[in-house]
Amino acid sequence: KAEEQEEKAAEKRLASLMKQAQALEKMGQKSGALDFYRRIVKEYPDSKEAKIAKERIKALSTWTRSPYNSA
């Protein structure tokens, strides 16, 4: 039972991290969003959210390196 509670807490934490990352990204705070996405990948590497986070990291990293954006 304790294991189930721990798993549910981890799921809630992961969902919270993802929401924070997405909110920061929507507000244009790409650096902050990247921090959260990287944390998701590091702490929850086998989750479906980690797969999404990796895609967002790639997209945001490409965006920030573009000479046409003043990031």
Please describe the biggest sheet, giving its number of strands, its sense, and whether it closes into a barrel: none
As a percent range, the share of strand residues is under 5%
Helix content: over 70%
Low-pLDDT parts are none
Shape type = elongated
Q: What is the H/E order?
A: HHH
- Alpha carbon gap, first and last residue: 47 Å
Structural class: mainly alpha
Q: How would the blueprint of this fold be written?
A:
Elements: H1 2-26, H2 30-43, H3 48-65
Give an overview in words.
With 71 residues, the chain is mostly helical. The chain has helices at 2-26, 30-43, 48-65. Helix 1 (2-26) packs antiparallel against helix 2 (30-43) and helix 2 (30-43) packs antiparallel against helix 3 (48-65). It is elongated and about 45 Å long. The termini are far apart. The mean pLDDT is 90.
Notable features of this structure?
single chain, 71 residues, mainly alpha, 3 helices, 80% helix, elongated
Summarize the structure in short:
The chain has 71 residues and is mainly α.
